[in-house]
Amino acid sequence: MIGIQDIRQAAERIAPHIHHTPIMTSRTINAMFGAEIFFKCENLQKVGAFKARGAVNAVMQLDEKTARCGVITHSSGNHAQALAYAAGLRGIACTIIMPDTAPAVKVAAVRGYGAEIIFCKPTQESRLRTMEEVAQRTGAHVVPPYDDDRIMAGQGTAGLELCEEVEGLDLVMAPVGGGGLMGGVATAVRATQPTAMIIGAEPVIAADAKMSLQTGLLQPPTDRLTIADGLRTGLSEKTFAQLRSMGVEIETATEDSIRRGTLLVMSRMKLVIEPSAGVTLGVLLEQPGLARGRRIGIILCGGNVDLGSLVFG
Amino acid sequence: MIGIQDIRQAAERIAPHIHHTPIMTSRTINAMFGAEIFFKCENLQKVGAFKARGAVNAVMQLDEKTARCGVITHSSGNHAQALAYAAGLRGIACTIIMPDTAPAVKVAAVRGYGAEIIFCKPTQESRLRTMEEVAQRTGAHVVPPYDDDRIMAGQGTAGLELCEEVEGLDLVMAPVGGGGLMGGVATAVRATQPTAMIIGAEPVIAADAKMSLQTGLLQPPTDRLTIADGLRTGLSEKTFAQLRSMGVEIETATEDSIRRGTLLVMSRMKLVIEPSAGVTLGVLLEQPGLARGRRIGIILCGGNVDLGSLVFG
User: What is the C-alpha to C-alpha distance for residues B142 and B130, in angstroms, rounded to an integer?
Assistant: First the structure.
């Protein structure tokens, strides 16, 4: 379990290396929902997602000896770029294990931050085995994407900044995938604005976190392919415990609502966000009663989306 | 002809009603071009485009008697929304003449700002005739999209804000359609940073402004359909004279470069822009020598783009 002091220390540690992202509002969206919504723009964060916070917090804490052997993780998403960015800041080696099916654009992005990529078969087993082999050979330190106190504390700094800047929030929302962001953010909210409700948002077709909290038993992720691809992963024991202890509730959105929520932010706020960042607004589109009359903080988790299909004119 | 004093007065007049938009930078884009580029984010302006500036400047100057009869224009683009917004601020009637082929989303946007829409046939002749008929019947005051000193002065405030915030610019760029934005911005740049080059950006398939400046004769717009749909229109005598007198040069970009420039801002800066706002970067992609080693101010003119084709996941 992490506490607010871990998040405050993380905030101080990472401040020189990450953006204190802006909080934006939209008169149109506020009018639509009859609410005051404050969007914390982690899509404008380094590497285009909140993941930079946790990775920098983890890498900056390594002792010299550990750091010298470099860091390693398996990911084809934002955590890979984030760890590569953090390792580059510290001038240490970074190895990313990626499935050989990863899109070229993601491979290029990670290489752009100076990491070495080792490909594996696109199965969870191959990822883990390849990572362990390489880690044993090189002595590289494993930095997991969410099942890690340093990561959770780092991600929580986004919630801390939100709560320090916007007073009197009735509700704070963030998407839930592995639970690293939600675990950290919930901890920051509980400590600084204890009366606020905390709602995690999840695709209805990948609602393992909701089920885990309902049953009290950690549920595995489904294999359904939601467009909110950052949320396909499941909670870990660590993040599950954190969410339970902070009184997080989970609400779901359909794929159509996620799409509408994503396009609402893009068209009205002129901000590019990834579908994982549109799930929160998707929940409110389905349950407008959750929003009405409330002051709401929403973490827009990232903006890394493939725009190649966009047709102009 | 307008002068810097007109722009300064406009700035004061419209300040309570428009956003002083942020200026953003991207380390990645700077590294790509070997330049320092400052993006003035008029996509984050009221109604999603710089057009709010000119329309508000025009409407706020009307005497009481004129204002009471309302305002009118013909447009299916950003000027229609901008005039509707400005009229709403002053609490006066606004009529927009639109071709009956206008996309439903644009019709809805203008209605959303409280304007009345009257449809006409999709020809320039039908637009003008319908507008004149309605104006005569109602006494509504015509606010043209660019061929108007108040409009040009209003749009120029975007350039004034840029030049006041960023010192020592070597080059300022804006897209050129009717020339209202470029005329105003060039006037602000000449007065405040007289040594800066000023380059207007135009699609190569709709390069009437370039031809006009080269030949010294006002050329009609082509009927080629560029994806930069805001730039399909031609200069007027008034904007043409302003561009000539301010020493504006014009450079062009292909449709492919416009698309790449637009997606570059969207993917790296996480800002939604319309293709008309990507033409400037399109020019620099084709002529990187224009950028290298320079401090460059670019007006991102707007963010009103149809995102319906976007496929996620």
Answer: 12
